[in-house]
Amino acid sequence: MATFRSPFRRTITTSWSLATRSSTEARLWRRLVYVVSVIFTQCTEFLYVFQCGIYNLSVSPLSNRLDRVLAQLRLYEHPLLTFDARAKGEGVEVIIRFKDDSVPVHTYYFDLHPRDLDHPQFEWTFQRQLYDALHDYFVEMFIRTPQDRKDRQQKGL
For residue range 91-138, what is the model confidence (pLDDT) as tens digits? Predict the structure, then answer.
């Protein structure tokens, strides 16, 4: 009986039946596919880390983050509000003011974190955050709501 060594150190007898040989070959092919998939996964993870490292090296400094936000704010025009921004730590603080100074309304502030400012889809995430902030700002402008029970009872409403 002649034997030889397979790459996975299993002894295969050449006089095995066809069914035994095919199941052994199938097992060896499955093992090969597994080994290749593990190597591929490790290479993919390495490439991802490498790309992230390159991206993090190209992250803009603080002044560029502020300039990026100011450039985005220039694209928005509102009849009631003005928009501004200033650096705050590593992030940026966006300022929303009511244009009419005769109306006693507070100024709204919200922060943009560095991870948001450096996001590849910054323009979309910024718009979502701006619209969320505008919603909150207008809701905070209410002088009276149905939940103000004591105030309503005092005023006879």
Answer: 999 999 999 989 889 999 999 999 999 988 999 999 999 999 999 999
Can you tell me the distance from the alpha carbon of 82 to that of 101, in angstroms, rounded to the nearest whole number?
12
C-alpha torsion sign, points 109, 113, 118, 124: negative
Alpha carbon distance 20, 112 (integer Å)? 64
Average pLDDT (6-26) is 59
Report the largest interatomic distance among the alpha carbons of the chain, rounded to a whole angstrom. 106
Exposure letters 99-123 (e unless 16+ CB within 10 A, then b): eeeeeebeebebebeeebbeeeebe
Task: Please state, in angstroms and rounded to a whole number, the distance separating the CA atoms of residues 110 and 155.
Answer: 34
Task: Give the separation between CA 61 and CA 90, rounded to whole angstroms.
Answer: 9
Q: Are 92 and 85 in contact (CB under 8 A)?
A: yes
The model's pTM is 0.56
d(CA 41, CA 66) in angstroms, rounded, equals 38
